[in-house]
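In the lab's daily routine, each protein ends up as an entry in a very long ledger. A line of letters takes care of the sequence, but it says nothing directly about the fold. The fold becomes a row of whole numbers, each drawn from a learned catalogue of backbone shapes. The protein below has been through that process, and both of its lines are reproduced in full:
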Amino acid sequence: MDFNAFRQRVLQTFRLDLTSYKENQLKRRLDNLLVRRKLGGYQQLFDQISRDRQAYEEFLDYLTINVSEFFRDPQRWQELEQNVLPDLLRRFGQLKIWSAACSIGAEPYSVAILLEELSPGKKHIIHATDLDKSILQQAQKGIYNADAVRHVSPERLSRYFHQQGNNYIIKEQIKSKVQYAQHDLLADKYDAGYHLILCRNVTIYFTRQAQDKINRQFSRSLLPGGVLFIGGSEMIFNYQDLGLEKMTPCFYRKSARRG
């Protein structure tokens, strides 16, 4: 079985669309996985993930880039805290937010912290999704090392975390604000009615066609006036075709003219 046949079999068997990943990056990662697992080729890898659910979960975990931390890229989060969220709160009051490809949960918990400070006592909806079930389980535990919280101020660390040895555990008042679910950005249906969607440093691993598909669906999921927050290494070149207006780096607002 060659690389292309492997991608097709994975799509047929697991409904996982590897053809939407950038080919060179994906092949490099898969070849590294073959070496790591001492496998003779793609057929052996497919056989392994087909018969062993644990092996498949580990395959997904390896495939997805689970690098995340609280308030990653602080300048952009400052923009979110000082301008974007206050404006959304003024215009909409109660917010519905989606952290897509949320990884270990640092991103949705960061949003929950900001909302706790900007609108204390108000109930907002924060959905957090990821393809990887094991990483979602980790996110729900809310346990982080020092690297993950390096951009969290001492005041926030004290207020929103319990320290246990070298780890920091998110407090229930923040943890309870986030609802987790498994979701495949390439295959699953998108919910609607969001005021803010965060999907940061994820689509860079996909083909331009897949990026366009995802961004188009994000736009449809936003209410008019809602905001899409992407990563610093990403850019939406055709944002106007998607009904979006560029605000500042990383932030795009859905045009009020679009439904």
About this structure: The CA atoms of residues 18 and 26 lie 8 Å apart. The first helix runs from residue 3 to 14. DSSP finds ten helices and ten strands in the chain.
